Amino acid sequence: MSAFVTDGPPDDRPGAAALPLTGERTVPGIAEENYWFRRHEVVYRRLAERCRDRDVLEAGCGEGYGADLIAGVARRVIGLDYDDSAVAHVRTRYPRVDVRQGNLADLALDDASVDVVVNFQVIEHLWDQGRFVAECLRVLRPGGALLMSTPNRITFSPGRDTPVNPFHTRELDAAELTELLKTGGFTVEAMLGVYHGGRLAELDARHGGSIIDAQIARAVADAPWSPELLADVASVTVDDFDLLDSAGRDIDDSLDLVAIAVRP
Fold first, then answer.
1. E strands along 123-250, which residues?
2. I want to staple 86 with a disulfide (CB 3.0 to 4.6 A). Which of 26, 81, 128, 207 is the partner?
3. pTM to 2 decimals?
4. What is the pLDDT of residues 166-189, one digit of tens each?
């Protein structure tokens, strides 16, 4: 999910019922949003193989690009979202996703009915995170996996008691996310972090130390994008991010956390 609201043009791809860019969800195809979109997309692309030939639920599918990406390898993908407009958009834009409207605190699926639950950049939006994790455990088959990503509280809202993003209810650090999953009955197989790779480190230096802060400063001031900032943001790809475990980097320094948890 975006850290801020941008005012880029709507998604005008053929067949797309345009979704408003509210800051609550990430929308592809918008230059000003591209950094955040790619930062989310990298997790889908790096973990998609875990969904191959599996029955998958994406809980909180948003715009639907991730569910559609997973549908390229999975046996079946159910996309669930609370927002009616998102459900209508996914139904129009991504027909190979079985999209449904529903509440993530009460998943409308049978017990032990899916092999994988995907939940990327969503848990931080939920009021009852423990109940959602319990629901994931319920709908997963034994040995099934919960794949979850969320902004790292330590780096996303540093020094704050409340999240910087007004759409977030509770952000987590690695220890808190691990505790949430273990308390919910899962075995945590891996805790990974998303980091800037070498080219993004160069862009950080070019924009005063942080390309993230440069974008947020523009949003807070409601200022126009400089051509240089817009060009650099629009150029970001998934290959500009690293997804590493704690042996590669300090997990507390990560931008986003990525948990792979298994139902015993």
1. 140-151, 187-196, 241-245
2. 81
3. 0.90
4. 889 899 999 999 999 999 999 999
